[in-house]
């Protein structure tokens, strides 16, 4: 008999609690069952899979490789049950629903915010959660059921067929500096920035790779005087008191230098266009959209 006929949602919840607490007794208490019952459920599941899902150590129960795979799918399955429960309650109570979206920083500012404003104008009680993170973390969150859809870059490793994706756009990099920077107000070549102080994302990040590739393509050294940070607040603080420059997405730079926020920053007029690899709107192929997700997704896609 297959796992689908033998494993209940409560069993999946027990396995997640074991992974969380690393103690069978604590997991059993959290699920309001006895330890012998929890032990029997775990043994039955391991018997069905033919593999151990946890290693027993003095310090606790640690998931095996098979256990990690089981837990990943368990999170997704329970997330689907939670979505079903929530949607049925919303239909019963006439609520507008909720949407969980993840995005890299550029489209979060340039696409998600305008889309949210448009949707909220017609659905005032729509609950929207927006998470901003690097693409690899967003992909993991999508697989674990923590997002309804994400705006991110497809992973270089793994199978892109594991996702349902919609082509989006290529990001352009803008170079920010403090108002009154010596290089502001005129065209600037990358060669003039070889000795500059840079505040830039961590090594391997898409914007950093794009900047370094642009330098290498022009036989220029990559930035050497670098402060690595993924924090925009740290970048702003460092630029405010120095001649440091910081590459950001065009959407972020336009927001910071526009009249709405009016940060005392300028965009340097680079004579070179630097672009980042394209991002996509990505969904799980097995996750069913709610009406609220459909509305938000449509608003996003029309702005790409």
From TrEMBL:
Chain ranges passing through the membrane: none
Span of domain HTH lysR-type: 7-64
Keywords tagged on the record: DNA-binding, Transcription, Transcription regulation
One Pfam family from the record: HTH_1
Statement: the UniProt record of this protein carries the keyword Transcription regulation: yes
GO terms under cellular component: cytosol
InterPro entries: HTH-type_LysR_regulators, LysR_HTH_N, LysR_subst-bd, WH-like_DNA-bd_sf, WH_DNA-bd_sf
Gene3D superfamilies in the cross-refs: Periplasmic binding protein-like II (3.40.190.10), Winged helix-like DNA-binding domain superfamily/Winged helix DNA-binding domain (1.10.10.10)
Keyword Glycoprotein included in the entry's annotation: no
GO terms for MF: DNA binding; DNA-binding transcription factor activity
Similarity comment: family membership: Belongs to the LysR transcriptional regulatory family.
Name this polypeptide is given: Transcriptional regulator
Organism listed in the record: Pseudoponticoccus marisrubri
């Amino acid at each position: 008999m297959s796992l689908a006929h033998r494993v209940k949602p409560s069993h999946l919840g027990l396995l997640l609690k074991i992974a969380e607490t690393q103690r069978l007794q604590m997991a059993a208490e959290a699920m309001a069952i006895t330890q012998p019952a929890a032990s029997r459920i775990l043994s039955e599941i391991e018997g069905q899979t033919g593999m151990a899902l946890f290693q027993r150590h003095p310090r606790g129960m640690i998931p095996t490789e098979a256990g990690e795979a089981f837990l990943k799918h368990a999170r997704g399955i329970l997330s689907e049950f939670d979505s079903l429960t929530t949607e049925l309650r919303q239909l019963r109570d006439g609520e507008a629903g909720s949407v969980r979206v993840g995005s890299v920083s550029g489209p979060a500012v340039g696409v998600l915010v305008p889309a949210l404003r448009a949707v909220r104008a017609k659905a005032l009680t729509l609950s929207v959660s927006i998470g901003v993170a690097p693409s690899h973390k967003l992909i993991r969150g999508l697989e674990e059921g923590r997002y309804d859809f994400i705006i991110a870059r497809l992973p270089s490793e793994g199978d892109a067929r594991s996702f349902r994706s919609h082509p989006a756009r290529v990001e352009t990099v803008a170079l920010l500096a403090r108002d009154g920077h010596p290089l502001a107000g005129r065209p600037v070549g990358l060669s003039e920035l070889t000795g500059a102080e840079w505040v830039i994302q961590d090594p391997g990040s898409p914007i950093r790779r794009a900047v370094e590739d642009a330098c290498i393509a022009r036989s220029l050294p990559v930035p050497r005087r670098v402060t690595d940070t993924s924090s925009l607040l740290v970048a702003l603080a460092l630029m405010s008191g120095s001649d440091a420059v910081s590459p950001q997405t065009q959407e972020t730079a336009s927001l910071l230098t526009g009249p709405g926020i009016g940060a005392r920053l300028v965009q340097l007029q680079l004579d070179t266009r630097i672009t980042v690899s394209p991002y996509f709107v990505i969904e799980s192929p097995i996750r069913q959209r709610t009406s609220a997700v459909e509305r938000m997704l449509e608003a996003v896609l029309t702005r790409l």
